[in-house]
Amino acid sequence: MKPDKDQAIIDLVQSEWELLQAAVDTLQLSIRKCQLIGIKESYTFEELESFDSLTSKFNRTSDIFVQKVLRSVWMLLHEPFAPYIDMMNKSEKMSIIRSADQMIEIRDLRNQIAHEYIPEAIRDLIPEVIELTSQLIENIENCRRFMKARGWI
């Protein structure tokens, strides 16, 4: 890849990083709101909407991180396209992310949420979403340190 093409990818990853940070900020606000609601037998419509919003924000944040930021980092490293699990394992070895296993678990939950249509089932996933959100943010922070050390952000 030519240096000017690398610069175009760096510019892209910087704008994607800003998008990711905005997504993380709103995800953290939703987490706090849902933690205040807590787990209980029944919920108001507004409380269920808060849980639905949380799962959407979790999915969006993980998608932006993996499909935009990590893919751009991968291009900057001149790495060939790899299947998700291989990319996560190599990213962990390269210290781009903290844990491939966590990112695989996050992706599995993201897929489960995306294909779940029963509101009660989504509600049952909330404790796992809250737990995995902290792991997602840890992996994002690891990636931030990696990119910052290379002057990409």
Verbal overview:
This protein is mainly α. It starts with a helix and ends with a helix. Helices cover 80% and strands 0% of the residues. It is elongated, with a radius of gyration of 17 Å. It has five helices and no strands. It has helices at 3-37, 45-76, 84-93, 100-114, 119-149. The longest helix is centred in the first third of the chain and has 35 residues, at 3-37. It has one domain: Four Helix Bundle (Hemerythrin (Met), subunit A) (Up-down Bundle). Helix 1 runs antiparallel to helix 2 (45-76), helix 1 (3-37) packs antiparallel against helix 5 and helix 2 runs parallel beside helix 5.
Q: How many H/I helical runs?
A: 5
Mean pLDDT: 92
Strand content: under 5%
- Rg (CA only): 17 Å
How helical, in percent, are the residues?
over 70%
- What global shape is seen? elongated
Report the sheet with the most strands, covering strand number, pairing sense and barrel closure: none
CATH top level?
Mainly Alpha
Order of helices and strands: HHHHH
CA distance, first residue to last residue? 20 Å
* CATH architectural name: Up-down Bundle
Number of strands: 0
Domains (count): 1
Runs with pLDDT <50, length 5+? none
Reported by name, the CATH topology is Four Helix Bundle (Hemerythrin (Met), subunit A)
Q: What class would the helix/strand composition place it in?
A: mainly alpha
